[in-house]
Amino acid sequence: MKNVLLWLLLVFIAIGAYGEWQEPENLGATVNSVYNDWYPVIPEDGSYMIFVSDRPGGYGGGDLWISYKVGGEWVTPENLSAEVNTGAAESAPYLAENDTILYFASFASGGYGGMDIWSCPLVGGVPGPKTNLGPEINTVNLECCPAVTTDGQTLYFCSDRPGSIGQMDIWVSEKTGDTWGVPYNLGGIVNTAQTDCPRWLSDDGDTLVISSTCVGGYGQADLWYAAKSGDDWNQPVNLGPEINSYAAEWGPGFYCNHGDMGGIIYFGSGRGGGEGAWDIWMSVDSDYVEIEPSSHGFLKALFK
Length: 304
Fold this sequence. Notes:
The protein is mainly β. The protein contains two helices and 24 strands. It has helices spanning 2-15, 293-302; strands spanning 25-26, 37-41, 48-53, 63-70, 73-74, 78-79, 90-96, 101-106, 116-123, 126-127, 131-132, 143-148, 154-159, 169-176, 179-180, 184-185, 196-201, 207-212, 222-229, 232-233, 237-238, 249-255, 264-269, 279-284.
């Protein structure tokens, strides 16, 4: 009887893992500015948010900024420092390997093309020296929007390199030792004739959130997700009108999602009603319950 009750409890939690996204809320003037603010990423403990902004006080055309959460409230953002920011432009941050590595894209000098992917160590939101991912990943073309599996062994990114199906495609590289392998195109099930950029991976690597300008969305660019069946990716599904608007949505970052696509989503949007041209918004999963991360993630994996 005890085992039956436990099984029913697990099923109840698993069924409630996927709710509907609620009406998005603007993060307000503390985080957002009259300039462009987007590409938010959140660590597992929710203690800070790193995002892109072209507000004054930076080093270049677009910098990485950080806002810490103190007493449950976001505080005035600070520039993430010259360790990562340059006189060019930085974009598309991604937290990996238990939030100890920050990946991002940059037009910084010393790279291989117009925009390259870089990484740096990160401790409590404080970055260390950055490193270019090298010619295995970066080319004379554009490379952007890194998304990395939890073990740090597989990198998804977008590029307009030869062999792409559309304007920008999602490419994949797998690491052997310390060396990234030759990237391969993710294929025509996920990639389209337009711009497709990977922005988030679930802990199990089986769900990929994409920012795409493909047809069939609600605006200029929408958030979509693709799920794996075995080794194959399925057709992407739009996140719906609760998240996407007539404008463009880009991002996202998740908090308290326990490694899956739920909890709280933070994303950039050009919709009206904000502080500037692009703002950071958030939406809460209707079934959001803050349960201890490792056990909740395990239960959700069991009943997917």
